[in-house]
Amino acid sequence: MNTAATNDFARASSLAHRAGHICRWTRTLIPTLREAPSDATVPSHQLMLRAGLMRQVAAGVYDYLPLGWRSITKVANIVREEMDAAGSAEIFLPVLVPMELYAGTKRDEAYGDLLFQLEDRHGRRAALGPTHEETITELCKSAITSYKQFPLTLYQIQTKFRDEFRPRAGLLRGREFLMKDAYSFHLVQEGEGGLDETYDRLHAAYTSMFIRCGLDFTIVEAESGPIGGSASHEFMVNAETGEDTILICEKSGYAANVEKCEIGERPWKFTPHAQQLTDHHTPGMPGIDKVVEHLGIQASGMLKSVVFSNTEAGNRKWIVAVVRGDHDVNEAKVRDAVGFAVQLADEKEAKQAGFAIGYVSPRVVATIANTTLLIDPDAATGLATGVWATGADTKDHHVTGFDWARDLGSPLPVDQVATDAGRGCSVRVVGVRNAEPGDPSPKAAGSRLVARRGIEVAHIFKLGTKYSDAFDFAMMDKAQQRQPVTMGCYGIGVSRTVAAAIEQNHDDAGIRWPMAIAPYHVLIVLMKPDDADHAAHAERIAAELSEAGIDVLIDDRAERPGVKFKDADLIGLPIRLTLGAKSLEEGAVEFKLRSDDSKGDLVPIAEVVARCVSEVERGLAAKA
Asked: Distance from CA of residue 482 to its chain's centroid?
């Protein structure tokens, strides 16, 4: 972590700058549950419901209750402090996005059914914003009048909406969620005031945010998805229950998600053989699983041929990506290999062109004009015998005994590429599959990629001019040359971060909050809340803790000790102080850290506030 970020951390995490908050259990709403609803399948969803942090209103839609909202607010405040320190200005944009704003970017089509859409009484259509690139670009085009106003970074913290088909996992996959989205505007990519400079600064700010939240996380190279743009990075909270796979080179520190991860060099060679090409009737078997079972082979012994086309209308180009049957084609790598945008081919158009979709073989490059054949290295030399099964280019038929050198019917590349300029076709050997654990590292020779599980909590993008071009947003620079505005986009799932923190920090009894984002730092458990002397001790300790900047919750309920201790573990506040008759007779209280599985120890009343302050400060600084 750099020195500036460390100084910011020290400034923001100091307890001396504020008074802590005191709350009594009987004066707030914490509806704990013994059992989680049956549809809550991941730990954060179960525990947020059981600990009374939230309550489901509808599928993927939740009430945030006092404990949950306090934690979300603490994350939001850390985000706000770091964004402000990085030179950003806060705004607030409307939730409703007029559909006409999507005319130039076509992102309504990219989001598809994920986009919530509605129509008002006048027939005007709008969407509930999933992000606000279009809205902010339209705003800045009308409001920025001089190159002197660049660079500019604006951000907001606001509810976003996505119409998930199957909302699940609580706040990890909901239909509405709290998000911080920021957008930067520049006239240059590099140098002072350029996109690269702001991107690096916000990359550092994001790093500081998650350090301050007390989370163990990995920064990975990522694909941009429907947002668009060139470079992007995801911030992933490391958790065994994470829904995303991260591939890491432990030797070099390289990390990327599956969609983006590169693969190191894989030697390849087309090995000829003498086995006969044999046709097999495979009725209704366009998929790999049924074919390999029918033929009695392994998926690794098949070639999978996936047909793509260019996205521009007219001058149709075809791309056939060939990978081993147990591998998956990576669309982004196909795009990068051919140098233009691609999409899975429309089945009707592809069949009209001559492709037997579901039964395609590499040999189509010899029969269909304007076809580029991309062969993954593992598909070129994955078998020692060189023998492959593949489609037969005829519906309901596959072949075994395919030989690249004999059966392709087009010149094979000796090095990397062979072309047939007359038909506009080419054959290339290039990596076009998803990386997997065990693949060679792209950054360290001899090292292999290993897998970890993670939860995406933030994503930053270099958008370039995608959105400014769509809105014709350009500006005269200092030399009076008209320049397109280049943009960056920086998102954080605020509510998602809270859920990810719980996924990373919990045990069988409940949550184990990181200190910085815990709803309260200290829970005072009163064994006898009706005893005036005991209550007075609790009030005095709470007041001193509050004066020291520590947030305190007093459990003043008339409940059995077992209920109180179970609830204390369930809601998971970092420090528990138990005030019972026996300990108070000895002039002490029981002090226990939620992160410590051992039994608590007795601390003299006169020393307990200092002990709590020390532990809170240690907890806030633990990740710095």
From this structure: 36
